[in-house]
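Subject: mismatched residue count in predicted assembly?

I count 786 residues in my input, but I want to confirm that the predicted structure covers every chain. Input:
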Amino acid sequence: MSKKLTVIPEQCSGCRICELVCAIHHFGVNNPKKAAIRVINTYPHPVMRMPVVCSQCKVPACAQVCPTDALRMVDGIIHLDKENCISCFKCVEACPFGAIYAHEDCDLPIKCDMCGGEPECVKNCPLGALKLIPEHALGEIKRLGNVLSYTQMREIEFYEKGEKKTIRYAEIGKEEL
Amino acid sequence: MSIKSGYYKKHLHIDLTKSSTDYRDLTDAFLEKYVGGRGFGAKLVWDNLKKHNFRLDPFGEENLVAIAPGPLSGVYLPSSGKNSFVAISPATGLYGDSSIGGGFGVELRQTGMDVLSITGKAPELSVLFLDNSNASIIPMPELKGKTCLEAEGIIRERLDTQAAHVATIGPAGENLVKFACVNADWGRNAGRTGFGAILGSKNLKAIVVRGHEDLPVYDIDGLMAEANKAFKYLREHKYFKLWQQQGLMNVIAYANEKGILPTYNFKDSVFARYDRINGETMLTDYKIGDSACFSCSMCCGNICLVKDGKYAGTVIEGPEYETCAMLGSNAGIDDFAAVLSANRLCDELGMDTISTGNLIGALIEGYEKGIISLSDLDGRNITWGDDDAILNLIRMIACRQGIGDIIADGSRRIIEKWPEMDKLILQIKGLEQSAYDSRAGISMALAYATSDIGAHHTRAWTIAREMEEGQGWSDEERVETVIYHQMLRPLFDMLGVCRLPWIELGLNEKHYEHFYKYVTGNQLTLEQLLSLSNDIYDLTRLINTRLGVSRKDDTLPYKVHSSPPLTGPNAGKVVDREHFQALLSMYYNKRGWDEDGMPPAGTEKKFED
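Triage response: the counts match. Full output below for your records.
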């Protein structure tokens, strides 16, 4: 079963711990600029903190432009073959998300390799903004959020054994009838 | 043992008058003795003062401002995104510092330096741009009058630096408002002691940093293991989730319950409608996201949006406790949207919310008592909770219009103009007091009186401990608690990390001994580190005493001695004068200072190199 690294930007606080652990894990140095994931901030319209990381596309734009076939999909993850890479950085420019990175000290592009299946960024994100989920479950969270926001929800509060509880239910729009 | 890593050993000095940039090497002895952050800053400011024979105008070209992260800034450990600004403060004329979170300090370090210092004055409004290979001063007169956030946007676009970190000043800084602040990362502020005005006096609108160096760490595996232990401790703490959700906003309810929430210019210490400006209200109606400083899992920052009403559309990174208390209950405002709007306005104009709220509260009371007349206010009435008038006053201060011109010069100028205001303004050494009522606990009063920058809680925050467990404290325990805080809390500012994991969630301070060891390779015990921090406290005291401070300045505001809170758990309480003087004597004695608060002869020698 193939798993995807997904981002829930609404949960991200911009702490950049993902960048740090990624760089330490792959390069052994404390340098967020050597990470294969970066948090982009926009403010004030819209206010957004968005971790940008490789989506392991099935039709990868990066691999398509690679002149030496150094980027190859193996078990759902696009790996960079260090032997064949000629450091032209065409992949960095081709990625539609800007999710492959470059650094002056590094000869090769910096690209997410999913840490062999258990990404450090996911393990260490303090707010659960990064998740590893099965491919078939992609979009589930969004779908639920969407359903809730499009339904006219009402809320009632009640007490059960002294504990306050709420039930949300959909009100059928009487006014519109 | 000695320093093996953790520093670039570089100090960049910039003289804006000569437009010169000068990279200097730092010696191991310097690094070991002053550690970083406020330590570096205090030393550079001290040397600069000596050079000018202790005669220095805070707004003069000669005032040196040091911007210093610490050896732990940006390192993988809880909340390592701190950076200190240090200079002679225009508000107090004495030593001043302020720390800023976010990621500005980390990025500054990544340009490959440990400390940046700036003197001189640019011929026209300019921006300082630093990256790994160069430092350039770029004239941008078109930024004049732009707000902090506008300027940040324009600079990013103009210099093509979307990923850089930008610290800006607003109109308040340009107009030399003595409590103007420096704003970075869209809403983090070096708030206190007037750094916005200092940069304004230097014609420096912004500092842009973009770096990519590895942060030097001696033993990365050791660091990882230690940091993971600390992160795990925090994650499992029972209040961790609360901090993530509310951040410092959870303190409003606590402060109100304990009777330390400044209300109506400290006339009271409980606010009847506190629940309209507390963390719960923020969560239900306003919060739309979290915001954290670099490498922080607690994410005490909030992002709020006003969704309806006359302030609809206001977005703000904030608020936090101080702002909500000073611009909320202290000004009698019970509308959270109005507080957010005032906070946003202060951020835009680049003004400290604590001093602004404190002075506005005092002004309203002054007007109520007839000390300030309607004509002083240009015929515009102002009362408690009048948000329109308060927002207008904030603009008037930043632009120095009407009475705003006097308020902009801070509490000293106000007292000069209306001497009776001395009884209403809570300030020490010219710095307006922050939002913890010290009438509830005398150790907090001592902490404010002996803080090196004036009435701020950053050096020692003993109020909660005294209320929780210190009811039976002896005076000796009170003094010792204040001194311990004054050693430990500034140590965080020297290392370049945040103190909240320790003070709020009880992260053991021993961790920092290990963090320091793994980063620098220098093995010091916590006691040795505290002793280095204590030396810096002596140094800042020395700076202040050479600038004229003595026992006569380590005082308390009139209200703390003579005007008790009207209601709440601390109703009727004041700080007894004799008791306070006895504590102060004991404090000096324990620090090894004389009866007049002077460090012993020979202290200067310690800081010669």
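Residues 3-170 of chain A form a domain with the Alpha-Beta Plaits fold (CATH 3.30.70.20). Marking this ticket as 'not a bug'.
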